[in-house]
Amino acid sequence: MEALQQHSLLVGEVAFGFFPDKQLKEDAFAVGLLHDIGKLVLAVELPKDMAKVLAEMTASGCTMNVAEEKIWGVTHAEVGGYLLGLWGLPYPVIEAVANHHAPSRVDSKEFGILAAAHIADVLVHEEVDRGGSSGQFTGLDFGYLENLGVADKVDAWRDSVRLVLRKH
């Protein structure tokens, strides 16, 4: 749980830094904090099934969301988005949480909090979990980033993630 909390804070801080606008900064930070709330729900409510997800990740080397989709047909992102919808949070926040692993599912042409959540989550995982390893192992949706016209900013964003991590 502590690692989940730390990761969420880092994603929030990184996503916050993507925007000059105060409201977008705040929304991006909130999405960063909440993007993995579905993991918490699933771990608390379905601990035995979560153990199956972790075993699948170990056996196949896949990511958690891929293992969840295989075992449950739904991911922690979608569960989290559903919960936030029940709580009445604004739709853009729900959409960003529910789709942070699959942003191409959302038809958007502008860089917003969904893009920020996707990028921040992947890049924080790259730095923290894989020690800066990227390339073919990255979870970034480059097609989505190209459609937004921001794919050329990935290296600069990686540098900003490293700066945030140095502060912690």
SSE inventory with pairings:
Layout: H1 2-16, H2 22-34, H3 37-45, H4 47-60, H5 64-72, H6 76-86, H7 91-98, H8 113-129, H9 142-148, H10 154-167
The string of secondary-structure elements, in order, is: HHHHHHHHHH
CATH architecture: Orthogonal Bundle
Counted by DSSP, the helix tally is: 10
Q: If you average the pLDDT, what whole number results? A: 93
Helix content: 55-70%
User: What is the number of E strands?
Assistant: 0
CATH level-3 fold name: Hypothetical protein af1432
Assembly state (oligomeric): single chain
Largest sheet: none
Which CATH top level class fits? Mainly Alpha
Cα separation of the termini: 18 Å
Sequence stretches where pLDDT stays below 50 over 5 or more residues: none
Beta-strand residue percentage: under 5%
What's the number of structural domains? 1
Q: Which value, in Å, is the CA radius of gyration?
A: 15 Å
* Class by alpha and beta content: mainly alpha
The CATH superfamily turns out to be Hypothetical protein af1432
The 3D shape can be described as globular
